[in-house]
Every structure is written in C-alpha cells, then in structure tokens.
Amino acid sequence: MKTNVKNSLFRFERGLYEMTLRKVLLPFAAGALALSLAACSEEDKAANEETPQVEENEKGTKEEAATAQDMQVKLAEQQVDKNKIVAVVNKEELTGVEYNASLTSIQGQMQQTGQDPTSEEAAAQVKEQALDALVNHTLILQKAKEEAITASEAEIDERYATLEEQFGGEKEMKKVLKAEGMDVKTVKEGIAESLLIEKYQGKVVPADGVKVTDKEIQEYYDQAAVQSKEAEQELPPLEEASEEIKGILIQQKQQEIFATHMEELKEDAKIELKI
After folding, report:
1. CA–CA separation, 67 vs 31, rounded Å?
2. Are 156 and 188 a contacting pair, CB within 8 Å?
3. 218: domain range?
4. Does residue 235 lie in a domain region?
5. Among residues 12, 15, 6, which one has the least CA distance to residue 201?
6. What DSSP character marks residue 273?
7. Would you say 70 and 257 are in contact if contact means Cβ atoms under 8 Å apart?
C-alpha cells in the first residue's frame, strides 16, 4: 500500500517550541478527556437499566475509570508544593507551579509512548527531565528578554484562535478552561512564551543558515525505504519525497545546533537546583 509523504515513516521532533506549546495543551487535553469520560459515564448510567450487556459494559467502564483515577493520583504524588522554590536560574526563583507544569508535560509524553511515568525507575527520570526542561525554558526567556524579542497581541490572538479551533470552537474551549480552572489570560501568557522561544530559536538558528546536500537526502530516503520495506509499506518516489526530507533534515540540524547553544547558555549561567 502506497502512502503519501506526510504519512510515511518520515518523523522528526519539532524542538523546544512544540514542547512549550505542549505544556499549554496537555492540561487542556486532560480536561477534555475528563469531560468526555464524564459524558460517557452518564450515558452508561441512563442505559444501564435496559439490557444485561450494557450492565457489563458499565462494569468495564467503571473499572477503567478507577484505573485512570488511580493513575492520576500517582501522577499527582510526583508534584511538589506550588510555593516551593525548585530552582534558581540567574537569580530568578522557579516555583512548584512552574515545575508541576513541566512535570505534567513530561508525564504526558511518557504516557503517549506507552511508558509508565509513575514507576520507580521512571520517577527519577521524570524529575530530571522536568527540571531540565524548566531550566531551559527559563534561560531562553531570559535571553529573549535581553535581546528585546517580543510577541505582539495580534500574534498571540492568532495563535489563540488556532488553539480554540482545535478544541472545537469558543464554546468547547470555555468548557475546557472551566474544567481546568484556567482562564484566557493564563493561556495567552503561555502562548506568548512559546512565541518568544520560537523567535529566539529562529534567531539563533535561522532556517536559511542550515544547508542540506543531495547526498544527505538520498541517505535519509534509503534508511526510510528499509524501514518501510520491513513494515510492508511503499514509499513515494524520491522526487516526491525530496522536499519533505529536506525539511526534516533542516529541522534536525537546527535542533542539534540549538542543543549545543543551550549547553553554552547553561555553562555561562548560575543554576541552583533545590529539589
């Protein structure tokens, strides 16, 4: 079966911008899921009196809900007091509120890949990654401020409108915000930060400053072809996939360069971890 370019095996990370935006989205996704489960639960209760089969389905639903609730309790146990100072970056104190947001993002990423972030082995890893992400996030925002990088209200509103559309419109967005105890102002502040990070990353590693050779494109295509064959899939011809691969390789190189830049920022910064 032939697949198009975007649905082929070409995969890549989108870097710190996506990570930051995910930090905004994950709590919303959790809230939307909770609303969905609640709605399903009410429907099951209403239909419970009709047939034995529905009774069995309801039993399964209750068990699944109990398991999900147990997981949420374990995830919450990894959080710290919202007022606790978890780190100091260049004299800027970072609190439990910020750490817990970063923690939620890392936990969600692990769950998406089928890992249990509450296991004993994973707990230390989650903590380390959450702190590292928070420190990186703070360093970039500090540098963006130093270089007078800003995000306009128009840019923020445009991103918010896109986010609102993803959640099914203004009405659904309000439901999610209410469920999460958040407001539009908080969301827009998160969007503003993601824009600053995106702009700073673009300044450090401009797209036109990274070059990709035909040889690199061919090598990437050949590797993807091997994986595609093992999965019994057929890739599009190289001439169709070339531009997509080029974009992937550019982003990979950008991320490698930016990762090096982050290490340099850390070396020059004064960082004190408190947990």
Report:
1. 17
2. yes
3. 209-270
4. yes
5. 15
6. E
7. no
Report the amino acid identity of residue 11. R
- Is residue 269 a contact partner of residue 212, using CB atoms and an 8 Å limit? no
**H-type alpha helices, the chain:** 16-47, 52-77, 96-112, 120-146, 153-166, 170-180, 184-204, 214-230, 238-268
Say how many domains are in the chain. 2
Could you give the count of Cα atoms lying within 13 Å of 75 in the half-sphere of its Cβ?
23
Q: Which residue, of 171, 204, 237, is where some domain finishes?
A: 204
pTM: 0.70
**Is residue 9 one of the residues assigned to a domain?**
no
Residue 166 pLDDT grade (very low, low, confident, very high; cuts 50, 70, 90): confident
Quote the tokens at residue 133. 């992400």
Give the pLDDT band of residue 46 (cuts 50, 70, 90).
very low
Residue 6: inside a domain: no
Please compute the mean of the pLDDT values over residues 158-174 and round it to a whole number: 90
Q: Cβ neighbours of residue 44 under 8 Å, at least 6 residues apart? A: 54, 57, 58, 61
Q: And the tokens for 194?
A: 């993601």
Q: Angle, to 10 degrees, between the axis of helix 16-47 and the axis of helix 184-204?
A: 150
Kindly give the interhelix angle for 16-47 and 120-146, rounded to the nearest 10 degrees.
130
198 and 218 part of one domain: no
Output phi, psi for 57, to 5 deg. Answer: -65, -40
What distance in Å separates the CA atoms of residue 269 and residue 94, rounded to the nearest whole number?
Answer: 15
User: Which tokens belong to 168?
Assistant: 């099914």
DSSP state of 83: T
